[in-house]
Design goal:
Strand order of the largest sheet: 2-3-1-4
Structural class: mainly alpha
Radius of gyration: 30 Å
Number of helices: 15
Largest sheet: 4 strands, mixed
Oligomer: single chain
């Protein structure tokens, strides 16, 4: 009988070991896949795949970054002098314009004469910049020069101020507005949720009767189980009109509205973890404080709170992690404007909302697709740092406050 029992125990131990190994390997493979897909972005050219930019060979400009290309084609820069060239107006030429200059019947079958005709147009215009498909571009023609196709750099991605991944001819992949929008919404949410959550935790731990505590604990746990899309609907129908009316705004979908929703969603985590930390304060500390003549309130803020400060700090960090990783509710109430947030009462876009909104439309393996995976890498690093901080704080020795 003992041998059979031992045999069963070994089987269970083996199953648990295999389960742990499979889980660890799966997590590792997910992380590797995430970073592999994201890192491919920095091997992509700044010009849309399958296209190139061509200029007259006399033009001294040899390379352009993604922002300069956007400025040229948006007519924000209209003179080569500002880009290091001659003092002459920039003439933008797109591939389809060739059919306005040369009748289609002259092209021959399969547009065989297109490269030659395009090359002639570029040679005749010293101030031209032509955006052409690589398959029809002039090949090694005198008087024609191809602009060097730079790769997307770290500075383009992390320092860029515009997020327009479908922009042509050069996608704008500046992630700075998304990072700042995420941090702004999350930090303001914690500033709102922290005093409220700490107040409720103090009430539950120190002041509430058993019946009230049980009822409130049940309600708080129920709040934690509500799907985020329901919070999003609540914010869209209730909070957005209130914020718009109270602050006299054109629209109510703002960073502040997103912060309010995230604050409500972070409250259960902050309250539960903080209340557990306070309830775990040794009874002897409370009794000792009261025996020395301290009131219940003095005991609370001079003994209980200092004693449970590590748990409270961990609750705050976990609340921040919940806020940063939230997707659906924020997507519905923040306005989704990928711009640098000038104020708290302007629309913003967060990293999780961007991934959720755009991943289904991004062609697999393309620049847009890779940039969204790189956003996932940024979010992973942020949440990992927050989790490590929470773990460090939670393992700190408790201060008895005396």
């Amino acid at each position: 009988m003992k041998k059979l029992k031992r045999f069963v125990e070994r089987i269970v131990e083996g199953m648990l070991t295999v389960s742990g190994m499979v889980t660890s390997v799966t997590i590792l493979l997910i992380i590797i896949f995430l970073f592999k897909e994201g890192s491919g972005l920095f091997k992509s050219p700044v010009v849309e795949e399958g296209y190139q930019l061509y200029v007259n060979a006399q033009n001294p400009v040899n390379s352009l970054n993604s922002y300069e290309i956007k400025q040229i084609f948006d007519v924000e820069v209209d003179n080569w002098k500002s880009l290091g060239g001659a003092d002459q107006e920039i003439k933008v030429f797109r591939f389809e314009e060739i059919f306005d200059l040369v009748p289609e019947e002259e092209m021959g079958e399969n547009y065989a004469l297109l490269p030659q005709k395009l090359g002639e147009v570029i040679k005749e215009n010293p101030n031209i910049v032509a955006y052409l498909p690589s398959q029809y571009a002039p090949k090694k023609m005198d008087g024609v020069k191809m602009i060097e196709a730079r790769k997307i750099s770290f500075l383009d991605f992390f320092g860029g101020k515009e997020w327009m991944p479908t922009s042509k001819p050069s996608p704008q992949l500046g992630v700075l507005p998304l990072i700042l929008g995420t941090l702004l919404v999350s930090l303001v949410a914690i500033l709102i949720a922290l005093p409220l959550g700490l107040g409720v935790a103090i009430y539950l731990s120190e002041l509430a009767g058993e019946k009230a505590r049980n009822y409130l604990k049940f309600t708080i746990e129920l709040l934690a189980g509500i799907p985020s899309v329901v919070y999003g609907f609540f914010g869209l129908v209730v909070l957005v009109p209130i914020v718009q009316r109270v602050f006299h705004l054109d629209v109510g979908e703002t960073a502040f509205t997103g912060s309010l929703i995230l604050a409500i969603m972070a409250l259960p985590t902050i309250i539960t973890v903080s209340e557990d930390a306070m309830r775990n304060t040794p009874k002897a500390l409370r009794e000792g404080s009261l025996a020395l003549g301290a009131t219940k309130w003095q005991t609370t803020y001079r003994v209980v709170i200092p004693s449970s400060i590590s748990g409270i700090s961990a609750a705050v960090v976990l609340g921040i992690g919940r806020a940063i990783g939230e997707t659906m509710a924020v997507l519905m109430v923040t306005g989704n404007a990928a711009i640098l947030p000038p104020t708290l009462f302007q629309p913003v876009r967060t990293i999780p909302a961007t991934i959720a909104a755009e991943l289904g439309e991004a062609p697999a393996g393309g620049t847009h697709y890779q940039s969204l995976f790189l956003l996932g890498c940024i979010l992973f690093v942020i949440t990992m740092v927050i989790s490590i901080i929470a773990e460090i704080i939670s393992k700190k020795p408790q201060n008895n406050g005396l």
